[in-house]
Amino acid sequence: MNLLIQNYEEACAVILFGIGFTTLLLHRNLLKKVIGFSMTDSAIYLFLAAKGYIAGKRAPILKEGITRAEAYVNPIPAGLVLTGIVVSVSVTALMLALTIRLYRRYHTLDIDEITRQARREEG
Amino acid sequence: MALWQNLPFLLILLPLAASSGMLLLKKDAARRAALTIMGLEAAVSAAFLVCMAGFEGSYTYSMGHFPAPWGNEIRAGKLEAALAFCFAAVMFCSVLGGIRAIERDILPDRRNLYFIMCSLTLSALMAQVFTNDIFTGYVFLEIMTIAACALIAARNTGRALTAATRYMIMNLIGSGLFLLALSLLYGLTGHLLMSPARERIAALAAGGQYRQPLTVVVALTTIALGIKSALFPFHTWVPDAYSFSTPSSSAILSSLVSKGYIVLLLKLYYRVFSPEVLLATGAADVLFAFGAVGAVVGSLLAIRQVEIGRMIAYSSVAQIGYIYMAMGLGTGEGMLAAVFQLMAHTVVKALLFLAAGGLCDASGGHHAFRDLRGSYYRHPAAASAFILGAFSLIGIPFTAGFIVKLTYAQAAAAVGGGRMLILFFVLVAGTLMNAVYFGRTVITLFRARGDEIPGEPRWHGGAGFLVSCAFLAGATGLMGVTSDPVLQLLRRGLETFG
Q1: What pLDDT, on the 0 to 100 scale, is given for residue B455?
Q2: Is A38's Cβ below 8 Å from some Cβ in B?
Q3: Beta bridge partners of residue B72, listed in sequence order
Q4: pLDDT, average across residues B138-145
Q5: Domains in chain A, ordered, with CATH?
Q6: B162-181 burial, b if ≥16 CB within 10 A, otherwise e?
Q7: Does A119 touch chain B (CB under 8 A)?
Q8: Which residue of chain B comes nearest to A90, CA vs CA?
Q9: Is the pLDDT of residue B367 over 70?
């Protein structure tokens, strides 16, 4: 328990990941699936950002003439998070575009109902 | 560094840059540009293969000249060169062979976007083959997923759209798990380049530290890429995605996109987690078991199908199962068998999907077996191509599939014990089931409907279709007849792959 409280960022990230993952997998509403996916990705970014931060060290920008590498945190995790955000934004846009096209055609967001109607349409 | 060693970078950059440029072109110009780029890509990768065949070992190419623990690297050896040539050539054939169908299935104002997505897929594939950086692998994996989703959705029918949505959902789960594995791995090793990460992991494994996180990382990467490459039981998105898209898309998805993920997984296994770590974590056993079950169940499901596209899709599930099963043997011979099967399946599956598309066209656009009766007489070229592909998957001599079965049997015999028996059982059962469902299809092609007189043979699909079918069929035959040089090249490539 103590371990969980000490690593509360990681614990929080894992809980968020679980919520997002189950929503993405089990929910029938397409919009909620997109939300679940966003949560999953955000949880991973929280995890990465938490791993990349070391208490007492500075952001890796040279200031006040301190050139010792030990005074700064590693910039790579932050860079990874930024790249990851760019990727997830584009994927979210794609998913929303697909959702809009399906909604215009079938007037529902329920993936099972959409599949049923698509089957019927084909005959 | 010799000038030709820049070619892998060019192979990634060329289609990537071209796909941005194609946005400006009109649809006919985009089609010509895409075909030119893909032809060029195949030619360049062939030249690279020739150069690489005369080069000892493998080399790394640091982007921007930053030394090893920093910066981004490309690494190329004989195996990468062979895979790049195989992928580029099959990509060219898949697009060329389905060009008439693309013009029929896809709205005119969307066509240039379709070619852009093909080009992006090719670039992402080349990046998966050549990159030595895990995060670059992740970024291109997402590009490939998005492009592949667009390739499915391009055919503007309700079924294609729902298939694309399901595909995207399953692949997003895979991407999320892969990103999680990647961040855990970075936390464990502090490296994103594969070779330094491997040294850290070897040190951790030797010291017995972080055993559980390491197992979690291996499990997460395997599941993530297993979902994306349609390993049983994560194959649920396959049949819809492959059977409701246009023939070119089906060919690209089943032969190339799924293989790109497998290549990345192979790379992680060889270069990051060494085979010893894999055996110690038990990942190899799990892969073997899932692959074996997938190979049997995929074939069983294929027998039950009444539509040709879905049957080929389930056959893909079985063939992917074979690849994973050989990887799960954990021996050099097993890896060789897996890589040869990967290449053979890339060629044969593209041939089958193109030929099936041609047969359906000749039968009034119907996909069910009852409508395909006697279609040999309506489209002899497509039917002959289909029959050759089917023979290869059954494993009849003088085709690539026969050599696949042979290398599998050799790998199994070298392992011995219970695994050998399981592998032999799966091989025999798989061959029998393949013979049942492909045999049935081939008979259907020749059996004309009772009231119908076999019509005049016609040549559908245009010259592009015939040329690509002929090329793919030739490659299938060539890999079966002169397999020794190919196997030799792959064996030497695998030695320097890790």
Answers
A1: 58
A2: no
A3: B63
A4: 93
A5: 2-122 (1.10.287.3510)
A6: bbbbbbbbbbbbbbbbbbbb
A7: yes
A8: B146
A9: yes
